[in-house]
Amino acid sequence: MKILVFGQLTDIIGQHEYVMESIDEMKVSSLRQQLLNNYPALLGKKYLIAVNKKMADDNAKIEATDEIALLPPFSGG
Amino acid sequence: MIDSKRYHRQIILPQFGMQAQEKLAHSSVLVVGAGGLGCPALQYMAAAGIGRLGIVDGDSISLSNLHRQILFGEADLGKSKAVVAAERLTLLNSAMHLDVYHQMLDHGACLQLFPQYDIVMDCTDNFATRYMINDACVLLQKPLIWGAVSQYQGQVATFNVAADNGLRSCNYRHLFAQPPLEQEVANCAEGGVLGMLPGVVGSMMALELVKLVTGVGRPTLNAITTWDALHNVYMTFDIDASTDLAACLPKDTDAFMQTDYQYLCGTRQLSENEIDIETLDAADEFLLVDVRGLDEMPAIDSHRCVRIPLPGLHDQLPNLKDQKVVFICQSGKRSLQAVDAMKVQFPSAVCYSLRGGVNGLIENNKMILQYE
To answer: Strand B119-122 relative to strand B223-228: parallel, antiparallel, unpaired?
Structure first.
């Protein structure tokens, strides 16, 4: 699945877009866990997960073909 | 009377016309923050013929502002942002009514100023003020145009707009129900920013305003638009506005006034009159004086704690002046008043206000609290 990375999360993940190998359907909460396993610096960081351009809660299901976006809060002005 | 020559090039736009121009002339907007976002937003709104603009900013202009805060020049260093912005905007459009508020926005100013305008625009630069503005807009039923930047990216949305059925579109708490603590966001307090970035995002906010006021096109409702300047990616994400936020929004103006946004965001420094929960927890020499009303829950169950409601505190101060006292209230505001009262009467008394109050004790699971 394609992962789009926004804001300063790109500093942690190291790229603004990448493809994550995923076997089959999973929940948003398991994606969050998997991202944390891959990038431990995400620990304690606040961000939203959008699935196909819709903000998704932890129980939402994700399929391998979905486009995922990771969106942290911005405050600068 | 609309100067149709002046606005000719927007009036002749398809769908726009004199009708849209008149709507702009009759609208009023309060812009909080005359910085990187506020400058371009104000400039384009003034140029477009908005009837009335309010500008709130307590800051003064510094040299490092000039690369992005394009209403200001070298001769303005040290002057008030709100005052200078208003001067420039008057030169641009003398028919417009301008209100200048050279002050930092606080709770009271939200409640006093927001009702005087049709729409509020958040051009500030920190989470504490942003959550305060969001909550005040929800409470006062004001539409809020919101924009923020981080390095090479921006986010824009229009919040809290009434639909035909009376329901309000989503607000910022539908995205992040609770304010992020400092450690939960990558450090950006001193983050760099390219001037064009807030330039574009502030212009997008002014455009949201024009769309919202005129009904031409569609503002970003129940969604947030993100723009990545480095990779030319522009995307809109839908937000579910059905989530019930009753538990995290202040329920009335009293609750709003009591909400300490700096504390919730973990960004408030302790003042010399304050003590934090960790320090209090490690020390046992303090007498705790709970200054809340007797009916306020939960009670603090400790032999070190007495309850003296704030209205009756004055008479008891002579009995407290020789002890080390920590005043406690629900959120840490009334307890600061208690410290002030003590210091006025007994300047050498040792007393502090517990930052965060009982709300903080609940969050930190400190002390035994009784709910009846």
So the answer is: unpaired
